[in-house]
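Quick one, probably user error.
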């Protein structure tokens, strides 16, 4: 399904979402992480705060809807952002790591994977990673497709 087709299908259920479609994929692990969202195991994500400033992008907003894409830019599901906060990398909690649903869901795993990923992202922008690097934490809930009971 294309992002537009999925958006139109969800709009029949929730007409308040409007017409602006924000669709994105989870980088190199797009298929794996989109599947975790679809199954309800991934309800959070994180990104580098400095890159929002570098790219002049607004931070995610609570109450907005996004389409999660797979590696082929096909729509997998729609999420609603429920919480946004910014913390230094070294203050991320085990609870947040668990909500990201990756690996063994531990804070140690989250820190290892994200330090490597954030370092790579920052190098591309000529910036350096540190334990105090700001991290944008998003929590969300899958709203479409609806789970079949």
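Nope, works fine. Designed sequence:
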């Amino acid at each position: 399904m294309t992002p537009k087709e999925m958006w139109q299908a969800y709009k029949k259920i929730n007409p308040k979402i409007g017409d602006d479609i924000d669709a994105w994929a989870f980088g190199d692990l797009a298929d794996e992480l989109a599947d975790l969202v679809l199954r309800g195991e991934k309800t959070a994500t994180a990104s580098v705060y400095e890159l929002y400033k570098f790219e002049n992008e607004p931070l995610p907003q609570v109450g907005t809807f996004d389409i999660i894409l797979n590696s082929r830019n096909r729509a997998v599901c729609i999420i609603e952002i429920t919480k946004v906060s910014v913390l230094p990398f070294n203050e991320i909690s085990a609870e947040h790591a668990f909500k990201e649903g990756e690996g063994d869901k531990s804070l140690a795993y989250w820190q290892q994977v994200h330090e490597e990923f954030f370092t790579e992202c920052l190098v591309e922008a000529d910036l350096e990673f540190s334990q105090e690097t700001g991290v944008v934490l998003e929590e969300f809930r899958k709203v479409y497709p609806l789970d079949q009971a």
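The chain has five helices and five strands.
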